[in-house]
Write a structure and sequence with these properties.
The chain has 163 residues and is α/β, with parallel strands linked by helices. Helix content is 35%, strand content 14%. It has one domain (23-118, 132-161).
Length: 163
């Protein structure tokens, strides 16, 4: 495990695993993945999961385990102990789900995981607020362009967004 992930203030691996189980995101992720399965059956689809990050990680992991899609995480938020965007649950989900992914090279679809909270506003932020600002904006280089998607056999894009 990376020393960063065990930095001061971070939960231990055991605490992280039990907490992740209590969150219940895995069952919600499975339910969404199951609903997407029919749409992905023919292949050639890029799914953009612009959801709460932990939920997106679980959806992509379930799609991967079912042999439906490669999971691609696009969450460049830095995991500071005190940050605007909390990262403990995201890191927990990434660690727990990474152990369950398939390495099959020829999955028919791809699922891009974004964090719907990536640019949340922080109204009236006090000048003494010591939290690191780990929010971010996506740019044109963060996801493949249309030509690259088409070259990879992607014929359609399906976006699920947080309401």
């Amino acid at each position: 495990m990376s020393p960063l992930l065990l930095a001061a203030g971070r939960q231990s691996d055991t605490d992280r695993q039990s907490y992740s189980r209590r969150v219940g995101q895995s069952s919600a992720g499975r339910a969404i993945a199951d609903k997407l399965a029919d749409s992905l059956a023919k292949g050639g689809t890029a799914v953009v999961l612009d959801l709460e990050a932990v939920l997106g990680v679980h959806v992509a992991a379930h799609l991967n385990r079912e042999g439906l899609a490669h999971a691609v995480i696009v969450i460049p938020s830095w995991p500071y102990d005190e940050a605007v965007l909390p990262t403990d649950e995201v890191v927990d989900a990434l660690i727990s789900q990474s152990r369950r992914l398939t390495a099959a090279p020829d999955l028919p679809n791809v699922a891009f995981v974004l964090d719907a909270q990536r640019n949340q506003s922080v109204p009236h932020r006090a000048s003494g607020d010591r939290r690191a600002d780990n929010r971010y904006r996506l740019s044109t280089v963060d996801l493949p362009n249309l030509a690259r998607l088409r070259a990879a056999g992607i014929r359609r894009v399906l976006k699920l967004a947080h309401p």
